[in-house]
Inverse folding.
């Protein structure tokens, strides 16, 4: 009997009257049974647009089309393959090139002029249908805005209360007197010229200024967003920006899908009158100061080797690297000027910006010199990640904890199932809001797509965990994978000689670095090949087993209960050898 696979796809656009994933799979299974074939695998893309090629299940199908895993592929329709005619031709050509049988809507596709013509016509119709749907809904949304109907879009603007639309009146914004006083105070304090964002945040927390969510902390970014909001002058603008996506296209050599939000021309903006809170003169004065500060900012962002990879071992928050000028006056005359480079917990950094009774806790984890932590991380990599015996001893399945990895996986699977149920219930609530008219179509489509994407991610995580269970009982497969991984690490480590190559090496091989209590832990993962292929991580179905490598940080001995300011906390570097600025 022939071995067959099926491919099903559905996007979450409510405008498209298509069947669900379950109905597609049922129909395709029926076609496979009628054709006398046996189903060996299902490829499903739930919540992915047909206008893109970088779909997980489709990429996996194209990767396995070169293997003898299956003999035929079943699609329900041509638009399930792709919405773009060019993409359809690319995928079908790859399938026919490997001499696989292609079944579309129950019919055997044979490469001939008639089928090519039919495919081109259907693809063009699908493209036209998508363009017309987008154009109709965009026009309808702009028409409602020009009539003065304000959509909620699931957000609440500080200083206003939203009155839902009824059968006789559109949705509107009315003034919230208590919050409007806070907005006026923020603008007046910042326009004075002597008060910064942090001081305004502390002032609001000290006086228990109300927030929409009821939480006490006022973060500086919240204050900055209020200062930049043009609606407080009396006009709220819509249709100010739109999203541009560049989908993966092998014909033009473009990589993964890129998403970018750009501003529309000013003449395309749609303004709706709302109650004013501040005057135009006060708003302009605040904007002038914000622009001056942005132009005169003297400490631009600098990327260090472990940037975006460090996590605090005391509070669990992320850490960031910083670099600034520092004068060392104690032992040198005249005072030496260098650069202080260190990593600090974001919780420790944000604590001084808030009022003491705002509910914020100061993280006790001290900052650490960049060179000390970076040298220790590379020492751990050189000692353990280049030795297959040491690395295997630190894999998850070989840990000596009382609770086995299998039980941990079961707990994670249970948590994932709970998350999937929660997202499904949330999607049902969104549908109920749309049905009663409390949610417009664009907001419904956007929020429903987000739920579908989260469900798809959770299902992918669940499948990954299920695949890992048999791996734990196959030592030979793990040995081969570890050896391949170690060889790759050795080769990359030897070629990492400058900042760029070292940074890329860490990004590719390290998941995170956790430091705290004079200890450092490095987390990574080893790819394990589960299907037919040459080496782990290349061809075939792959899974990953994580590992954790722990080490200590050398510091000067403690003096009583006091931790001295030592080289682990401060380091003065030569300006000529410091990390260059990242423009």
């Amino acid at each position: 009997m022939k071995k067959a696979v099926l491919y099903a796809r559905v996007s979450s656009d409510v405008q498209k009257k298509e069947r669900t994933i379950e109905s597609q799979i049922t129909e395709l299974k029926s076609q496979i049974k009628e054709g006398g074939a046996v189903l060996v695998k299902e490829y499903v893309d739930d919540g992915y647009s047909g206008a893109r090629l970088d779909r997980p299940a489709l990429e996996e199908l194209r990767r396995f089309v070169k293997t003898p895993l299956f003999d035929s592929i079943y699609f329900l329709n041509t638009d399930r393959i792709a919405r773009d005619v060019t993409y359809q031709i690319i995928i079908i050509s790859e399938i026919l090139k490997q001499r696989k049988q292609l079944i579309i809507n129950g019919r055997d596709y044979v490469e001939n002029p008639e089928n090519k013509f039919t495919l081109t016509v259907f693809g063009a119709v699908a493209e036209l249908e998508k363009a017309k749907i987008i154009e109709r809904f965009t026009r309808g949304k702009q028409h409602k805005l020009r009539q003065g109907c304000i959509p909620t879009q699931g957000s609440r603007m500080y200083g206003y209360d939203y009155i839902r639309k009824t059968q006789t009146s559109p949705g509107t914004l009315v003034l919230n007197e208590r919050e409007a006083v806070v907005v006026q105070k923020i603008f007046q304090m910042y326009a004075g010229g002597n008060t910064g964002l942090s001081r305004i945040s502390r002032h609001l927390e000290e006086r228990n200024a109300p927030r929409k969510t009821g939480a006490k902390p006022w973060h500086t970014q919240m204050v900055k967003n209020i200062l930049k909001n043009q609606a407080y002058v009396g006009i709220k603008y819509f249709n100010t920006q739109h999203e541009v996506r560049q989908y993966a296209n092998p014909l033009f050599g473009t990589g993964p899908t890129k998403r970018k939000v750009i501003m529309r021309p000013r003449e395309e903006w749609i303004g709706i009158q709302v109650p004013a809170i501040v005057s135009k003169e006060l708003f302009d004065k605040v904007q002038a100061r914000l622009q001056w500060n942005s132009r005169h900012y003297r400490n631009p962002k600098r990327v260090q080797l472990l940037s975006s990879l460090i996590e605090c071992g005391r509070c669990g928050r992320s850490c960031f690297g910083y670099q600034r000028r520092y004068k060392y006056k104690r032992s040198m005359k005249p005072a030496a000027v260098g650069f202080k480079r260190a990593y600090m917990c974001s919780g420790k950094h944000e604590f001084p910006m808030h009022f003491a009774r705002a509910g914020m806790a100061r993280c006790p984890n001290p900052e650490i010199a960049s060179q000390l932590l970076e040298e220790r991380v590379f020492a751990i990599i050189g000692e353990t990640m280049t030795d297959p015996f040491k690395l295997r001893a630190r894999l998850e399945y070989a840990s000596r904890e009382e609770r086995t990895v299998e039980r941990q996986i079961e707990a994670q699977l249970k948590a994932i199932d709970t998350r999937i149920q929660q997202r499904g219930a949330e999607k049902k609530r969104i549908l109920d809001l749309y049905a009663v008219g409390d949610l417009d179509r664009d907001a419904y489509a956007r929020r429903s797509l987000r739920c579908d994407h989260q469900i798809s991610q959770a299902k992918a995580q669940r499948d990954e965990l299920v695949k890992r269970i048999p791996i734990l009982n196959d030592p030979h497969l793990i040995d081969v994978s570890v050896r391949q991984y170690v060889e790759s690490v050795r080769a990359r480590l030897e070629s990492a000689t400058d900042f760029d190559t070292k940074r890329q090496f860490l990004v590719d091989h390290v998941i995170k670095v956790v430091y705290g209590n004079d200890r450092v832990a490095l987390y990574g993962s080893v790819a394990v090949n589960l299907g037919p292929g040459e080496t782990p991580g290349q061809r075939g179905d792959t899974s990953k087993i994580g590992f954790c490598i722990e080490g200590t940080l050398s510091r000067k001995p403690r003096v009583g209960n006091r931790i001295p300011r030592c080289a682990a906390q401060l380091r003065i570097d030569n300006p000529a050898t410091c990390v260059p600025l990242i423009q």
About this structure: Residues 198 and 576 are 33 Å apart (CA to CA). Confidence is low (pLDDT under 50) at residues 14-18, 397-403, 532-541, 556-583. Residues 300-401+469-583 form one domain. The first strand starts at residue 3 and ends at 10.
